[in-house]
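Hi everyone,

Forwarding the result from last night's run.
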Amino acid sequence: MRIRITKEHGGHRLICKRRNGTYTQNAVGASLPYHDLAHYVVERELHLEQGFFGLINEGYTIAQLGGAAIIRTLPPVALAAEVLARTTCRD
């Protein structure tokens, strides 16, 4: 997957292009790029294939992964990736 973060209007945009050519994108806050980068590092180094970026690659959108109803249905490794990314990234 190709991950791109661009600066825009006092915030940032996260754009993820999946291996199958589809993509998802969403505006993220000014401090969130650091959190997203922490997700990338944690998930890659610990081989957490069902973390944030793994779920995006499976077809979830960035917006879906921010919704409480979807979050409750995610696999436990997704929660572990979130906790690790939050503790790794001190904005």
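The radius of gyration is 12 Å.

Cheers,
N.
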